[in-house]
Amino acid sequence: MARLRSPRGCPWDRAQTHLSLIRFLRAESRELAAALRRGAWHEIEDELGDVLLQVLLHAQIESERGRFDIQDVARSQYRKLVRRHPHVFGGRKLSSAGAVLANWKTIKARERRQRGRDVAARG
Q1: Vertex 55, ends 51 and 58: CA angle to 5°?
Q2: Domain ranges within the chain, ordered by starting residue
Q3: pLDDT of residue 102
Q4: Fewer CB in 10 Å around end: N or C, the chain?
Q5: Alpha-carbon distance 88 to 95, whole Å?
Q6: Under 8 Å CB-to-CB from 21, ≥6 apart: which residues?
Q7: Cβ-count burial of 94 within 10 angstroms (0-12 exposed, 13-18 middle, 19+ buried)?
Q8: For residue 101, what are the CA distances in angstroms to 13, 29, 90, 92, 106?
Q9: What is the pLDDT of residues 23-74, one digit of tens each?
Q10: pTM for this one?
Q11: What is the Cα–Cα distance from 92 to 95, expressed in whole angstroms?
């Protein structure tokens, strides 16, 4: 992705911004969803790759700005998965999908409240 957006790379890729990419992210997500709904398993790999390309582009834009890169995105997602699955990575016992969903909603609400406090403290 860095090479595509480099001065000697692709003019189209270099010109993209987060906002200009929104329509492509939506389109690729719709195409993936359509393949999943049709059960077109032979198309899913390709469509997943197209969605991943969008993620990589957005992460590269932020990397160029010095904010974060794709490795930071992966680390952040890893931490979130561990936090939101205490029944897998911790001592919490949850035996049904419903219990997992309820616990996930509780954890997510707590994270939102904490983000709000963090933003207020910085502001």
Answers
A1: 135
A2: 1-68, 84-123
A3: 94
A4: C
A5: 11
A6: 54, 57, 58
A7: middle
A8: 39, 24, 16, 14, 9
A9: 999 999 999 999 999 999 999 999 999 999 999 999 999 999 999 999 999 9
A10: 0.85
A11: 10
pLDDT of 122 > 90? The answer is no
Q: Nearest-CA neighbor of 84 among 71, 70, 74, 94?
A: 94
How many C-beta neighbours within 10 Å does residue 43 have?
15
What does the alpha-carbon distance between residue 73 and residue 51 come to, in Å, rounded to a whole number? Answer: 15
Distances (CA, A) of 31 to 22, 39, 47, 57: 14, 12, 7, 18
Percent of the chain with pLDDT over 70: 100
Residue 46 CB-half CA count within 13 A? 7
How far is 7 from 12, CA to CA, in rounded Å? Answer: 11
Cα 35 to its chain centre, rounded Å, is 20
- The domain 1-68: what is its CATH number? 1.10.287.1080
Number of other CB atoms surrounding residue 51 within 10 Å: 16
